[in-house]
Structures are given as C-alpha cells and as structure tokens.
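Lab manual, section 2.4: Encoding a predicted structure.

Procedure: take the sequence of the chain (294 residues), apply the prediction step described in section 2.3, and record the output as structure tokens. A sample record is shown.
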Amino acid sequence: MNPLLGDRRATLILIGPALLIYSVVMLVPIIVSFGYTLTSGNAITGFTFSGLENYQRLLTDTRVRDALLLTVRYAVLMTILQVGFGYLLSLLYVFVLRKWSSAVRTLVFFPVVLPTVAVALLFQQMFAIAPQNGLVNTALEAVGLSSVDWFGDGGTAFLVIIIMDVWRSMGFYGVLLYAGLLDIPEEVFESARIDGASGFGLVRRIVLPLSLPVLVSSLIFSVNGTLKVFDSILALTNGGPGTSTSPLTIYMFDTSFRFGQYGYGSTVAFLLTVVSLLVTVFIFRANRRDLTKD
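Recorded output:
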C-alpha cells in the first residue's frame, strides 16, 4: 500500500478523476451560490452587488424563522422515528425473524422505491375528506368519531407528512442497520448469553455499543436528508395550508424561482448548509465517548 501511495503519478490517476468530478459537481456550485448571496436580481434583470443586505434581511424575515423552526421540528421527529423504527426492524430481522427476514425486508423496503409523487397521491386519498372520505376518515367514523380535515390545518397536515415519510423511509434504515448488525460476530452473542445477558440487557450492553458506528452514520444520513426535505412535502401539501408546512427548502425555491430573487434564495440555502454542518459536527463530537467502556 505504501509504495502505491508514495507514487504521486499513480495517486493522481486514481484520485484525480473523482476529485475533479466532485469539485465540478459539488464545490463549484457551492462557491457560486455563496457569491450570489452578496447580490440582488436574477438572470433576466441582471445581478448587482448588494453587500450584506441579504443577510440583514435574513435576520428579520419572519418567514425564515417559521420555516427554520418547521424544518428543525421535522428533522428531529423524522430522525428519531425513522432511525428508531429502522433499528427495531433490524433487531427483529436478526433476533426474531431469522427465517422470514428476507421476505419481510423486501416488503418493508418496497415503499422506498416508490415514486414520491405516487406515495403523496396515495396518502392524499387515504386522508381525504372531500369529495368523499378516505380510508382513515372512514375508519374514524366506523368507531364513532368525526371525520377530520387533515389537510385543512397545519398541525394535522404536518402529522400526515410525518406518517408518510416514516412509512417510506424506515425500511431503508432497517436494511442499513441490519447490515451493521451482521458485522457483529456470533461468538460475541454466544459469550454474552453464557455470561447471563439476554433481552434488553444483551441489546444495551452488546448490540448497541458494537453497532454504534453504523447507528451514528444513520443519524447523520437521516439528519442531513430530513433538513433538506423538499419533494415529499411539495407533492403532499405544497407547503400548505398557507405556509404552515413550508420548510426552508420550499421557501428557498419560491424565493429563487417564483419571485426571481436569486441572491436572497441563495442566502436561505446558505443558512440551511450552515445548520446541516453544525448538526453533523455536533453528532460527531457527541459520538466520541466509547460506550464499550461502560
């Protein structure tokens, strides 16, 4: 390995293309977008240098504050639920459903491959109240409860978004965490059982510490994905009613492409990037403690 890494020409050939593609696809747009934050205007009217005006507006914009709060609330809830359910599923695959885990994994993973718009239309029909009740309101009436206008209120619309996205994503995290659990040697489980560990004690003292790396990776993956949620909310509620379910991404999209304010839209995107980086660094620093030493 050392002779290969010591050969600069070989290193450049191996790493150069990937580094070039990454720079063109990721770094250049980020730098250009940051440059837009210091301008006003758009591609039609032209761009003019505006200094820190967009950042000053960002600090006093109540829409940004509301969108940021909704984005953080969505990210926290979704990360807890989709990684939590995914971890429970992975434990079921390993310890309970050994014989049927392959079939169950396929069924639970199926929503992941469905188009987002198709899933959103499905949930719109399930939670519909007009022109006729959907499956959920029909079930509520069957047990003597009143129908609910799920998409007429921001709170219930947000609840439907959470239910839909958890249903779509928990299969993915179940498979991801299941792969991490398979890396734990069977001998470790056998030794722990001989020492008297079982049930919750086995999970807490053996499974959780040894699966922590993949669990942390799942958390980072989930947080960064949920902070950037866009398509599922756009397809299901379009940010409504009003702007009650509009996260930062939809506000950024509206500002940039509907109102033609590229500079301010880029500033909102910069805020989202900073939030994502801060959360990722926080998770990395919180993970420094070695649970296997407890």
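Check your result against the sample. The mean pLDDT is 88.
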